[in-house]
Amino acid sequence: MKKQQSGFTLIELIMVIVILGILAAVAIPKFIDLSDEAEVAAVKATAGALGAGSALNFAQNKLDSAKGTSIGDCDEISALVEGWDPAKYDIDPEALAAGESKECTVNRTGTGHQATFIGHGVS
User: What's the domain range around 54?
Assistant: First the structure.
């Protein structure tokens, strides 16, 4: 009586390795250069945080004029964001009058990436 052996042949194993190699060759280039997209997303997220901080500060000042941080320029809005890193980001200076809303621009230092947010002037 012969015993029936089960398993994969050498050809089948080689074919699986070849197919996995082809899939990896196609997929890897799509994921290698995601750093640029990550930088753009980081700048947009920073702009969102700046816009939200400015809106909250403005609303707080409207509810109670004794509260809120005085903001007279777009680049002063960075004081409203905890953990702001001036080495990574800078905000284009743009004067803001009290009660005025204006589009401000935040730039990622050294990359050329930028995003906009709405800044609110508070006296």
Answer: 35-120
Q: Which long-range contacts (CB under 8 A, 24 or more apart) does 94-99 make?
A: 94/119, 96/71, 96/72, 96/120, 96/121, 97/72, 97/121, 98/72, 98/122, 98/123, 99/123
Asked whether residue 93 is domain-assigned, the answer is yes
Question: Does residue 3 fall inside a structural domain?
Answer: no
What SS3 string covers 32-60? HCCHHHHHHHHHHHHHHHHHHHHHHHHHH
Question: How many domains is the chain built from?
Answer: 1
Q: How far apart are CA 10 and CA 3, in angstroms?
A: 20
Instruction: Answer yes or no: is 21 within a domain.
Output: no
pTM over 0.70? The answer is yes
pLDDT tens digits for range 34-65:
788 889 999 999 999 999 999 999 999 999 98
Q: Tell me the C-alpha distance between 61 and 71, whole Å.
A: 11
Residue 90 contacts residue 75 (beta carbons within 8 Å): yes
Domain membership flag for residue 24: no
